[in-house]
């Protein structure tokens, strides 16, 4: 994955593949809370109701006989992450291919403001890895602090976090598997695809997650 930034807010993310696998850096888990504690790791609470729109958004890029393209979306909330943001505007996602996505951070912020009406306590900025894995690359790690800086300038007091949503290639129709939170990941299976999302703070530290009933 290659990432470049124009100024502070426009980001393009590219992934490089070798064969059928995406080459990404190995993750080094650190048990340090992103909210300041050095004794425990932060736990994020997700409303179960937002899992379905996350799935629909990610699988919605499907086109017959074409490769899936990367996409992006946001999740926000206060104590519980309970609102999904599609980021379907061309002002947010300027360009997307199977291995790259070009987004504008300020437009994401405006999108969230319009839908929430105020700044939330937490925002999770998510991009997808179609046919890839839910891991951070070295380029992801070096870029997330700068993305967080833009959010902090515009959304004072809001904690900005990050997610990598891997979705498998289309499989034969099968039984749906319910979402399960494991460490810093949420995993499930739709009728035709496997999903896995990993969550991190701006310093690339993994964040434990739990799923709550709406």
Summarize the structure.
This protein is α+β, with helices and mostly antiparallel strands and about 210 residues long.
Task: Walk me through this protein's architecture.
By secondary structure, the protein is an alpha+beta fold. The chain has a single domain (2-16, 42-212), classed as 3-Layer(aba) Sandwich (Cytidine Deaminase, domain 2), CATH 3.40.140.10. The chain contains 3 helices and 15 strands. The chain has helices at residues 51-59, 105-116, 138-154; strands spanning 2-6, 10-14, 17-18, 21-22, 43-47, 72-77, 81-85, 93-97, 100-104, 122-130, 159-167, 177-182, 185-189, 194-200, 208-212. A hairpin with a 2-residue loop joins β3 (17-18) and β4. The termini are far apart.
> Could you give the order of the helices and strands?
EEEEEHEEEEHEHEEEEE
Can you tell me the number of structural domains? Answer: 1
- Please compute the radius of gyration using only Cα atoms: 16 Å
Gross morphology: globular
How is the CATH topology named?
A: Cytidine Deaminase, domain 2
Q: Secondary-structure blueprint of this entry?
A:
Blueprint: E1 2-6, E2 10-14, E3 17-18, E4 21-22, E5 43-47, H1 51-59, E6 72-77, E7 81-85, E8 93-97, E9 100-104, H2 105-116, E10 122-130, H3 138-154, E11 159-167, E12 177-182, E13 185-189, E14 194-200, E15 208-212
Structure keywords:
four-stranded antiparallel sheet, 3 helices, alpha+beta, single chain, 214 residues, seven-stranded mixed sheet, 15 strands, disordered N terminus, globular, Cytidine Deaminase, domain 2
């Amino acid at each position: 994955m290659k990432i470049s930034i124009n100024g502070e807010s426009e980001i393009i993310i590219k992934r490089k593949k070798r064969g059928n696998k995406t080459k990404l850096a190995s993750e080094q888990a650190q048990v340090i809370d992103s909210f300041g504690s050095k004794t425990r790791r932060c736990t994020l609470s997700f409303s179960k109701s937002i899992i379905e729109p996350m799935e629909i958004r990610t699988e919605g890029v499907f086109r017959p006989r074409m490769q899936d393209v990367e996409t992006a979306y946001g999740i926000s909330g206060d104590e519980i992450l309970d609102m999904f943001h599609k980021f379907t505007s061309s002002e947010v996602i300027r360009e997307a291919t199977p291995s790259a996505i070009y987004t504008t951070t300020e437009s994401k912020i405006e999108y969230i403001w319009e839908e929430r009406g105020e700044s939330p306590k937490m925002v999770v900025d998510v991009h997808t890895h179609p046919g890839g894995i839910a891991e951070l690359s070295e380029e992801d790690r070096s870029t997330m602090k700068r993305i967080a800086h833009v959010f902090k300038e515009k959304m004072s007091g809001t904690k900005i976090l990050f997610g990598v949503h891997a979705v498998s290639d289309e499989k034969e129709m099968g039984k749906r598997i319910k979402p399960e939170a494991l460490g810093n990941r949420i995993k499930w299976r739709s009728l035709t695809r496997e999903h896995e999302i990993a969550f991190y703070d701006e310093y690339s530290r993994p964040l434990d997650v739990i799923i709550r009933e709406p």
